[in-house]
Amino acid sequence: MEQQAGARGGRDLSRRTVAQRLDIPLEMARHHGIPPFWSADQLAAFLAEPPAWYVQSRANRTGKRPVWVELRCTICGTSETLRPKKWWPEFSMVSCSWHGADELPPVPEGARRREVDGIGAFVGIVDEPTS
Q1: pTM summary value
Q2: Which residues of 22-42 are buried (b: 16+ CB within 10 A; e: fewer)?
Q3: φ/ψ (deg, to 5) at 118
Q4: For residue range 45-89, what is the model confidence (pLDDT) as tens digits?
């Protein structure tokens, strides 16, 4: 969520938005003193001359799992950016929790469908081969 800035007339970026743009966990942003709101200029200055902890963090990335993922509802296009959980399977698609199963595309032939609840405001849909 972004907040309107006071006298500057620009938009301040929330700590969560900054963490997403830096591709770091929100906890790391807090730990390293990123304040609740930053201007776009402050973020640009940070990226132009990143501190040692950020450079080291980027160097240590294994790339196995993303820090943030954007989930987008297959039905209506609503999106949410979340930290992926280790227990999440590979989703075929996601839908908002208020949509009915009858609104989803049909189950592919030779597959069975299961739903995974608790994915932010979404339900994860997994289409698995029946064999």
Answers
A1: 0.68
A2: bebebeebeeeebeebbeeee
A3: 85, 30
A4: 999 999 999 998 888 877 677 889 999 999 999 999 999 988 899
